[in-house]
Amino acid sequence: MNERQKHLLVIDDEPVILDAVKKIGTAEGWRVDTAGDATSGLQLVQKHVYDLCLCDIKLPDLDGFGFLEELRRMNIDLPVIMTTGYATVENAVRSLELGAIDYLPKPFTVDEVLSALYRGFRYVELTSNLSGTKSGIDSMIVPCPIQYRRLGYGSWCFIENDGSVKIGVSDLFLKIVDPIRSLRLQSVDSEITQGFSCAEIEASDELVHTVMAPLSGQIISINQKLEQDMSLIEKDPYFEGWLYTIIPKNLNYEFKYLTACNQAYG
Amino acid sequence: MFSKIAFKLIITTSLLAILIFSGFAFLTIRSQNALLLDQVKDFVNAQSETIKNSTKVAMLANNREVTHAIIRTIGQQPCIQQVRILNKEGRVIYAADSSQINMVVDKKAEACYSCHESNQPLSKLSISERARIYLPPGGTFRVMGIINPIYNEPSCWKAPCHAHPKTQTVLGVLDLTVCLSKVDREIKAAKRKMALLALISILTLAIVLWLLVKQLVDRPVQKLLVATRQVASGNLNYKVPELGNDELGFLARSFNIMTQKLTEARQQLFQIDKMASLGRLAAGVAHEINNPLTGILTYASFLLKRTKNQPEINKDLEVIVRETMRSREIVKGLLDFARQSIPKKIRTDIHQVIERAITVLENQLSLNHIQVKKQFSGNLPQILIDPNQMQQVFTNLIVNASQAIGQGGGTIAITTALTRLSPYGIAQIRQALCPKGHELMDEQTRIDGLPSIKLKIRLNGKESFIHLDPIYGRKNFRSEISINETDPVEILCPKCNISLIDKSKKCPECYAPVYSLQIPGKGQLQGCFTTSCGWQYWEYIEKQGPRDYIEIKVSDTGCGIPPELINKIFDPFFTTKGQQGTGLGLAVIWGILENHEGIISVESKVGAGTTFTIHLPVNLD
């Protein structure tokens, strides 16, 4: 995996955060460039090829959302993880809607930022390796069924006829965090919030990956089969490997942040 | 003073009274005058007849001396102004005033005019025609003169003097003039009496009116004025005292209701405003604090990772990481509060939550010699709550209680119980649809922080909107117009204009038409929209009957809260602790309980202590 040195760009207006991430990344053996605002970040992006970008939403000139739009306009394919100190659901889902691959609320610990960045690199690896091949990403990764909807690339949901919603983890997310060591689920009756953690997956490298809830609501049942056989989630992530059934709380409002499953990733 | 009601009323009434009295006096005095003059006329005429008769004998005898003597004697009577006898030619033959004798009176003069008007003198006239009243030149009283003709009689022309031939009809006249001083005096006295009576009446009327106006209008209005000034100066708690059952009494009661509603509205606005400013502040603070916190957290956790083989440093770093994580949670809590975040609810035993809150504060409480008395109900069901948020509620309440008790020591009593509360005024309507399925909830217009139900009203061709209170039965609705039970009002869906009126029903309280809204999965909500009634009926909820609530009371023996502050304690940033408090504690509690559909109320007595009562619903839908 480490044939080539990974190249990370960090954009934040706080020097201490740039320094910290640079220190952490360098310790992991990555090349880390930093930019204090979106404009200089965009200049760097045009000069160098980065594998991944960690970008703050609140920036002095152009904000993080503007940065994402600018990248799209310039046709630069750079996976971005958004981060902000004003961690709201709206910010999280808007980031994903605009094409960010992940969302990391501040303040974060080393483990949290590392798990997000590793996941990001794995995502890049998987998608770039596969996009070169004939059938692309779909040949190796099972896409979610067409009537499903997803939040970012990580979690999916399906509205049942009775109004309840089944939610689960996407194949791509599982491939990224693979191999799974353990799965931490919430209990029945708990409430989950769109864009925030609804489950944690511990990978064998000890990194803990959070699964973002695609919708807000109250958990009414948990997949019992998963508790007996954890591998089910990897074998059949879209049917037998579902996580929870929930009663959605604000479906009409939150639905617009979801993406249809027939649309491409990224 | 001249613009006062009493003054205007008194002036108007007095003028009216003067008018009525003078009219009355004029008529009375006129008739009295006529009556008196008639009497005097008859009297004078009788007197004149007497004089004529008493001089007859002397005249027949042609004894001029005796006649003179009689006339003179009569003329000496006090009120007799003039007595004279004139012959046919108008010559004065006899007179009390001897200087007039032999004077010739012009037949055209006033006294003679009535008879000598036509050339042929009339021989017979009535008394009134013979009488004349006039003010003599230089005199102070009016006088009445009566001319009495002396007719020819057989004894006259048969008399030996043969002074008068048989053919003559009138031999002469007796002219008697009497003063009217007595009559004038009486009329003057009557006028004076009338004026006096009028004056007394007007004065009495004015005083009575003044007292009445003072009692019935002035004083109540004065009280209302004081109240309006108080309200204008911002004191919405001022109440107008009871003013009786008249219109002003109604006004006073209406005024009190108005200030009460204003207070509520202001409080809500205040709360919303403060929440909004707190939200902005929290957003700013969160971002600014989160950045340095990120620095600390990443560096500390990075160090922690690298020093796994150095247990001493590692332990200290763990503390830094742990405390930074705690700060992160605090900031998140502040943000969550500002955003009224959705709590993470799980089935929880409320007693465990309370116990945990007490354990955390145990040291602090025992240092202040505060005893915690727990009276927990044995069989409380588990309820769906966010245990962390709810623990914060109890921690805040206990900290407040211990601070109210102070250094001297005291008791905090925490009791729990299961109670039932009627849904009327508590249950929240979260979704409402028109018969065609259009959403009626309005997120923009919130009542007490909750989305309201928006309906369109059409009244007499005019359209406006009404926002119903989402709390069932609380009647805190907002309407641009006032609606009466008899108004031909239409209630429509704002989106498709379909009528929402249920024609088969009438309001059981005011008989006004009734609207009917679809509550998905929970039947129909019916209600009356008149401004004064606002009755509602939600069969689904009513059938469920009263809901079970867990009631938790936290009482202290502290200093208590003065009544004027009790309304403010849930406001963000309101604090009595000066620099020690942020003023967020109870506001946070308020927000958390709102999110749990819970209710918090407070009772307090200065010097005796404070009790906070929390109701949490047992079955959340």
Describe this structure in words.
- Chain A has nine helices and 15 strands.
- Chain A is about 30% helix and about 25% strand.
- By secondary structure, chain A is of the alpha/beta class.
- Chain A has two domains: about 120 residues, Response regulator (Rossmann fold, 3-Layer(aba) Sandwich); about 110 residues, RNA polymerase II/Efflux pump adaptor protein, barrel-sandwich hybrid domain (OB fold (Dihydrolipoamide Acetyltransferase, E2P), Beta Barrel), CATH 2.40.50.100.
- Chain A has a seven-stranded antiparallel beta sheet.
- Chain B folds into four domains: about 180 residues, 2-Layer Sandwich (Beta-Lactamase), CATH 3.30.450; about 90 residues, Orthogonal Bundle (Helix Hairpins), CATH 1.10.287.130; about 150 residues, Heat Shock Protein 90 (2-Layer Sandwich); about 100 residues, no CATH class.
- Chain B is built from twelve helices and 21 strands.
- Chain B has a five-stranded antiparallel beta sheet with strand order 2-1-5-4-3, sandwiched between helices. Chain B has a five-stranded mixed beta sheet with strand order 7-9-19-21-20, with helices on one face.
- In chain B, helix 1 runs antiparallel to helix 2, helix 6 packs parallel to helix 7 and helix 9 runs parallel beside helix 10.
- The longest helix of chain B has about 60 residues.
- Chain B starts with a helix and ends with a strand.
- The model of chain B has no long low-confidence stretch (mean pLDDT about 80).
- The chains are: A alpha/beta (about 270), B alpha+beta (about 625).
- The interface between A and B is medium-sized, with 31 and 35 residues.
Q: Class of the largest domain in chain A in CATH?
A: Alpha Beta
| Class from helix and strand fractions of chain B | alpha+beta
CATH topology of the largest domain in chain B: Beta-Lactamase
Order of helices and strands of chain A: EHEHEHEHEHEEEHEEEEEHHEHE
Distance between the termini of chain A: 22 Å
Query: So, the CATH homologous superfamily of the largest domain in chain A?
Result: Response regulator
Main-sheet strand order of chain B equals 2-1-5-4-3
Rg estimate of chain A, integer Å: 18 Å
The radius of gyration computed from the alpha-carbon positions of chain B, rounded to a whole number of angstroms, is 53 Å
CATH topology of the largest domain in chain A: Rossmann fold
Strand content of chain B: 15-25%
How many discrete structural domains of chain A?
2
Number of helices of chain A: 9
Number of strands of chain B: 21
Distance between the termini of chain B: 67 Å
Low-confidence stretches of chain A: 134-138
Molecular shape of chain B = rod-shaped
